[in-house]
Give the backbone structure.
Amino acid sequence: MSTAPRRTALDALHRSLGATMTDFAGWDMPLRYGSERDEHTAVRTRAGLFDLSHMGEITVTGPQAAALLDYALVGNIGGVGVGRARYTMICQADGGILDDLIVYRLQEQEYMVVANASNAQVVLDALTERAAGFEAEVRDDREAYALIAVQGPESPGILKSVTDADLDGLKYYAGLPGTVAGVPALIARTGYTGEDGFELFVAPGHAEQLWKALTEAGASVGLIPCGLSCRDTLRLEAGMPLYGNELTTALTPFDAGLGRVVKFKKEGDFVGREALRAAAGRAESAPPRKLVGLVAEGRRVPRAGMDVVAGGEVVGRVTSGAPSPTLGKPIAMAYVDAAHAAPGTEGVGVDIRGSHEPYEVVALPFYKRQK
């Protein structure tokens, strides 16, 4: 028995804009409104507006909220200041990645954990289970929020025109409560595009009002609505991992080249500590496959799951691939053996349906915005 996909508070609006909808992690989401390339370019050069209401918000409150999160997650969450955010991960006892997360500290004893849509229930269940013995409450707030993102170089100007919140003082990975277009919102300077931008958490009943106000405010500088398809090419160019592609339960943060998120020095034990300590040791002595960028010399597009080859041997696997509108060539992220991971390594290709297409190995990210 299949269940009908969930719809965000902006569903009718997306359809009225002619969006092509797709099922994503059990949600009906806009894939694109018109041209994916135009949407991608708008975010890189002007601004784009996204509905990200499929993301999973979980609130953790109480006197031991920080202690619970320090135990449940790999990062030092107790060290995050009020009004700041941190990128972190939740791992299994064996060190495998359950999800990558952003945790916002809203108040001294209140945190918001934002999980990927596909893993929100898994994260909620794990946090609830790990909360045993802590004076803290884990609350499913997925129905409490709609999430609208405005991303791109024009986004600060657009947002400033509809809020009196201090955006200039709002650093990257920080969040503050404010009013946007007359709507109460948590304004976070975060995103998944490689550009400056903001994510606005609001009550679902306010989502349409906010979307329309931002659309109007951004019209003169070229803001357009953007779907999940261009969000994927934007994050790929920015070298940002996607759960299910670059991150899985089969990998530890050290395997993914993201060992920096694991904080062994924090007080107390945390789930996966021993396994992750061992993974860190292995990564030092015998580097695992390394996540690298690949840029095509030809026109054929690599896709997730394709083999990376060198000298007739399989030396890696593509995790994400797409045409890059910014570079004008197909690109991919792939885990490859350490011997073939150095930028500029010769003779590396991707097996695309039996044909070994030549690729250049490059350091990630493919694209970095000029600050």
